[in-house]
Amino acid sequence: IVSCFLITVGQIKTPEKRIKLYINLKELGFKPSIVISSHSYVSKHSKIGEGTIIMHGATINAGAQIGSNCIINSHALIEHDAIIESHCHISTGAVINGDAYIGTGTFIGSQAMIREGLKIPDYSVIRGGTALFKI
User: Fold this and answer.
1) How far apart are CA 12 and CA 10, in angstroms?
2) How far apart are CA 110 and CA 113, in angstroms?
3) Which phi and psi angles does 41 have, rounded to 5°?
4) pLDDT score recorded for residue 9
5) What is the 3-state secondary structure (H, E, C) of 63-116?
6) CB neighbours of 128 closer than 8 A, spacing ≥ 6?
7) Residue 82 belongs to a domain with what CATH number?
8) What are the tens digits of pLDDT across the range 31-53?
9) Which range marks the domain in which residue 127 is found?
10) Cα gap 64→43, rounded to integer Å
11) Which of 92, 98, 126, 134 has the most Cβ atoms closer than 10 angstroms to its Cβ?
12) Is 99 left (phi over 0), alpha (psi -120 to 50) or beta?
């Protein structure tokens, strides 16, 4: 009997489908798994929420906090003390610098860079290749 789940569908325009699926499966009694690639680095001083997947080559440094139902894609870098709220998708090669805050349901595109200490509001979409220094 299977009792756990992991949602691996990326963001499709909005995170709503991922969020609804996550909530529905939890209400049915399934437990969200955490999957961390053996080819990633996750500091023992970081926190990873339930239902989150950390892909190959990703780095999660000390003090970083990742919420539930997140995708941290290949070669993404989450620096010290950054906070990624639940239901976020951090795409390939994105860089979230130290003390940055990424609001619930946010999508950060491939190779985007978020400056240290920057606060990204809930449900934002940051296009690939964007470098954000202020909002």
Assistant:
1) 6
2) 9
3) -120, 125
4) 87
5) CCEECCCCEECCCCEECCCCEECCCCEECCCCEECCCCEECCCCEECCCCEECC
6) 91, 109, 110, 111, 112
7) 2.160.10.10
8) 999 999 999 999 999 999 999 99
9) 4-132
10) 8
11) 126
12) left
Residue 106: partners with Cβ closer than 8 Å, 6 or more residues away:
85, 88, 89, 120, 121, 122, 123, 124, 125, 126
pLDDT at 84 over 80: yes
What residues have CB less than 8 Å from 78, skipping those under 6 apart? 46, 58, 59, 60, 61, 64, 66, 72, 84, 90, 96
Predicted TM-score (pTM) of the model is 0.94
Query: Phi and psi (nearest 5°) for 34?
Result: -115, 130
What residue type is 61 in one-letter code? Answer: N
Tens of pLDDT, residue by residue over 98-107, are: 999 999 999 9
Active-site residue, selected from the candidate residues 45, 56, 80, 87: 80
Q: Is 80 a catalytic residue?
A: yes
pLDDT band, residue 26 (cuts 50/70/90): very high
Q: Which amino acid is at 75?
A: H
Rounded CA separation 99/20 (Å): 29
Number of domains in the chain: 1
